[in-house]
Design brief:
InterPro entries: Gp3-like. This protein has two domains: 221 residues, no CATH class; 128 residues, no CATH class. By secondary structure, the protein is an alpha+beta fold.
Amino acid sequence: MPIIDLQRRMRQLGEIRLGHVVPTSNGKTRPAKLNKFRFTSPSREILTAVAELYGGEVKPWTPANGGPSEFEVYSKVDRLPVLIPPRDAVSQWYELYAGSKCQRRCDGVTEHKSDRPCMCDPENRDCAITTRVNVMLRDVPALGQWLLVSKGYHAAVTLPPAAELLAQAGGYVAGWLGMEEKTAIVKDKPARFMVPTLDVEITPAALMAGQITGGPQAVASGPERVAITSGRPDYAALAAVAETAEEVGKLWTQANQAGHLDDGLAKTLKTRATALGAPPKEPERKQPEPTPDDEGVYEGEVVEDTPDPAAAEAMWFQIMAAAGPRGMTTEQLETAFAQRHSGLHPSSATVAQLEAFLTALKAGEIA
């Protein structure tokens, strides 16, 4: 009988990276992001095959942390055909490194290297969120997995749900590993950062039914393709079948909290909400403030103590939906709200104030 823990592990062929280290004018180095994938591996032969498929040139590379010398390729692609394993596709830890040595590896409760309680202050951790993604490159002639490591917030919250869904397939799933650029204001200056994404070429229904094993039947095309990008729902499709403005408002809140609410999606949701009776408004969406990855990849973390205009917008959608059967117009609602809040207009109200108004409206207290 095979040894189970050895049976479930595959050889790591190398790493897929979103950034690199560059020299500065003072003789030091700094991390910098890339807009195309970079590959590193101890095998020149494997990287030669990678370069033939995805462009670039194989060159020697020595890690900045003093690790053993390897080889690297700066490819010309930002999207890779992959096979996603049914288990351990994504793993997460809080980790603290000294050079190339891991000092702590914690799940938020227990530090596993010392088998002691977590040593970090939850509000100001010494350890960094570390998310690892394991995939096979579909077209590279080598048996093993490639590792992508991210220390950003967005990857930490969006990739695990995608992996959990993919595990329902019971086998390898054909998909795509990509990268998305996001922007945010950091210390009053614009910052750009890259976020890894996972797409699959199969409908969610087939995935949940376990109808694929990663072979040719895993690939769909045309209108049948439903992408799951880093666990991202198809908000536009969900909005299209929504029956009330309140449902659209909840999608707005979900997308905003997950960091998916870009201008295009906001316009789509607003158009659908308007068609269902909610008034069009232009909320100022909050931007997460990024934190630097070890290779210059910035991924934003939401600041919890700032106002949330998008949540207020979603609550207003719910108010409009509740007012519809009562025959109240937008102007009448705004007037009623101002009367209950000393002249305050709903656009300047907090989520709590809007929620209290909705409760009163549903209770019949609003004339």
